[in-house]
């Protein structure tokens, strides 16, 4: 399943609960499953964002090593030239 499929499944399970198409026991089970699918959809969206950031950096000539999300550059807020 990809992120969109997880989102759709979470939405479907939540709709079942809202419409009362299941027993009380099933409501608890479906709520837990809906939450799990929603979490997986969010994780997939985050992973896609990271892939996008890597591709964008590469397109701009910056190679990001595996395990790193972005190059860190120190910022000097008290630059002597600005004073």
Shape: rod-shaped
Described by strand count, sense and barrel closure, the largest sheet is: none
List low-confidence stretches: none
Number of E-state strands = 0
Gap between N and C termini: 55 Å
Task: Write the H/E string, N to C.
Answer: HH
Q: Supply the number of helical segments.
A: 2
Average predicted confidence as pLDDT: 80
Rg over CA atoms:
21 Å
Relative helix content? 55-70%
SS-derived structural category: mainly alpha
Q: What is the subunit organization of this protein?
A: single chain
> How much of the polypeptide forms β-strand, as a percent range?
under 5%
Task: Output the keywords.
83 residues, 0% strand
How do the helices and strands line up, and which of them pair or pack?
Layout: H1 3-19, H2 24-59
What does this 3D model show about the protein?
By secondary structure, the protein is mainly alpha-helical. It has helices spanning 3-19, 24-59.
Q: How would you summarize what this structure contains?
A:
With 83 residues, this protein is mainly α.
